[in-house]
C-alpha cells in the first residue's frame, strides 16, 4: 500500500518503459511531484521492484504487465484503466528500441517489432488517451523522440526513421492543440547511459564506446520541465543542441555518412571499453532481463 501523502494530486501519469533509463527517472520525478503512477512494461519482476521505490514516495502505483510489441496492447491498457475508472492526466510514451545492422541483413520480424513499439503503440496510446484529454480540455503527453530523428542513419535506419516520425507527429499535434489546454512535448535525447545500446546490439560501436553518455536523470529533468511548461519540444543537453544545429546546416548525405561511421566497431582496447550501464536502474534491468525486449 502507498503511504499517505498530503501533497498527493489524485492524478495519474502513465509511463511506458518506466522500469529503467529515462522512463524510470521521469516516473520518479512524477512521483515526487505527487502523481500516482501507472507503469507499463513486460517484466512483472522489474515492475514490482520499482513499484516499491515509487510507493515509498507516497503515491499509488498500478502495474500493467503488457507487451507493447503486441498490436492489441495499447487498447488493452486503455480498456483496463477505463474499467478501473482511472483517468490518465499525463502520458509518457517512453518505451522504444532500435536495432543495429544493414536493413537487408536484419530479420524482417525485428524491423516490424521496432516499428510496432516505436510508432504503432505510441500512436495508439496517444490516440486513445488524447481523445479523453481533449474532451475534458486538460492533459499532457510526452513522446520520446531522439536527436537521431534529425538525420538518416545507415545501419540504424528503421530506428532513426521511427524517431523522425515521432518528432513530426508530436509537433503536428502540438500545433493542432495550440488553442486547448492539452499539450504535446517531444523530448530529443542524445546518447544516454541506459541499456538501450545493449538491446540494439550497439555496444561494440563507436557510437557507444567513443562518446560521452548523458545521465538519464538529467535528460529526464529536461523533458519533465518542458512537459510541465507545455513546450512542444526540447533537445536535452547543450552538446546535443549544437549537434542538431550542425545537422540542420549540413546535407542529409553528409549527416548519413557521419552516422554510418559511428555505427562501425570501435578500436578501443578491451580494458578501456564500456561494458555495463552506469545508471543503476538500467543495470538492474540488464541483470533481470538480459536482452529481452521490455
Automatic annotation (TrEMBL):
The organism's place on the tree of life at top rank: Bacteria
Listed Polar residues bias regions: 250-265
Membership in a protein family: Belongs to the short-chain dehydrogenases/reductases (SDR) family.
Keywords of this entry: Oxidoreductase
Name assigned to this protein: SDR family oxidoreductase
InterPro entries in alphabetical order: NAD(P)-bd_dom_sf (IPR036291), Sc_DH/Rdtase_CS (IPR020904), SDR_fam (IPR002347)
Pfam families attached to this UniProt entry: adh_short
Region (Disordered): 249-294
Compositionally biased residues, Basic and acidic residues: 266-294
The keyword Manganese belongs to this UniProt entry's keyword annotation: no
Native organism: Chryseosolibacter indicus
